[in-house]
Amino acid sequence: MRQTSAAVTNQFDVIIGASGSKTDLLLATAFLQSKSLNLIPTEQMIDILAEDGLDFAAPIAFGDSYKSSPIIGTIAPFINHLSKDKLLEGKIFTTHEHAVIGANVKLKVGDVITPTHGEAMPEDEHHDEDEDEEHHEDEGAHNHEHVGSELTIVGRMQATATAWDNAIIIPIEMMWEIHGLANGHSEANEENIGLPFDNEYLTEASVMVLKPKSIAAAYRLRSEYDEHQTTAFFPAEIMAEFYMLMGDARQILTLMGYIVEALVIISILIGISIMFQLFSRQFAILRALGAPRLYIYLAIWGYIMSIVVVGIISGLLLAYGTSFLINDYIQSRVNISIVTSLSAAEIWMMLMALIIAAILAFFAPLAMMQQSITKQLARG
Asked: Under DSSP, is residue 18 helix (H, G, I), strand (E, B) or coil?
């Protein structure tokens, strides 16, 4: 979770919003969680857009959706930034009615959709178009279609491993127009999209994402716009607080892991003891027939180690496979892709288990061969 969330927030250098909760701004921007955000005053937006030292300043507007996908208005450079300057298919929007979809959106290039006002709904809450209209009226009390505002899908982004993989992105001008607002351009340029905007026709945005050209510019902008009318921050600031909480939980889980490992060692001891009881007569017969001590020793040691190795490998495969099911569950809740990987800690625990088992297996044959052959045969 920590690695994944860091990879997500690293794609948003500086976030600026209206005065309010930085946590809400981060969750709304990076994770596309539904939050009630104040809008950035146009005066501040004009100042930000005029700043030097920026690769881009992307205004972002939320509020609409299509089925389970949020529809977000922004500018083309921000899409290029998220998609690593190359779309998976199609092209960037060039008119107000165009849209670019995230990698996981279940639409295809060429599809035409009508945006719905309100939050995206989980897929299992959607109903077929043939269902009773009365149900749609109840459902649409707050979520209604923007009739006449059709969007054509013209491109699909590369996978970003963020919630934006499930989003539909349109020119911010279209988002403003859908809601009856000025689209940022004068009447003479009303068909334009993206920068530069005409300041007199600029409409407020939910949030702005900045990509500074340098670290110095990033700190300057963060300091300058973290004032009473706006809030500016680095996502890492907020995530650091989460990581502290996650660190406490990780310590508890690590302690539990050590306890489990201790129980595993005890189970190995019990298993070896049971094995002695089950196979002591067979090994005694081998000794009575004159089998070399090294052969008997290697047979006992190899048997114990084979059980341990098979157990570790099968446990690793089971845990790795189960992690994908857990990841899918978490992803459906937080809307980000979580990648499972083996870390040094897991590899070290496996090596420790092997070393401890090898030591136990080293002494087990010696203990067995110290016993009397007669007594071992008598047990059978």
From this structure: strand
E-state strands within the chain:
14-18, 54-66, 69-74, 89-90, 98-101, 112-113, 116-117, 151-156, 168-171, 207-212, 230-233
Which pair of structure tokens corresponds to residue 117?
């006002």
Asked whether 55 and 80 are in contact (CB, 8 A), the reply is no
HSE (CB half, 13 Å, CA atoms) of 172? 27
* Helix, coil or strand: residue 274: helix
Quick one: 329 exposed, middle or buried, by C-beta within 10 A (0-12, 13-18, 19+)? exposed
196 preceded by a cis bond (ω within 30 of 0): yes
Write a three-state SS string for 147-178: CCCCEEEEEECCCCCCHHHHCEEEEHHHHHHH
Tell me what pLDDT residue 132 has: 43
β-bridge pairing 151-156 and 112-113 = antiparallel
Q: In terms of pLDDT, which residue wins out, 194 or 3?
A: 194
Phi, psi of 152, deg, nearest 5:
-110, 125
Instruction: Return d(Cα 63, Cα 343) in angstroms, integer.
Output: 40
pLDDT average, residue stretch 180-204 = 90
Please state, in angstroms and rounded to a whole number, the distance separating the CA atoms of residues 175 and 62.
Answer: 8
In angstroms, rounded to a whole number, what is the distance separating the alpha carbons of residues 114 and 375? 85
User: First vs last Cα of the chain: how many Å apart?
Assistant: 55
Tokens of 123: 């897929």
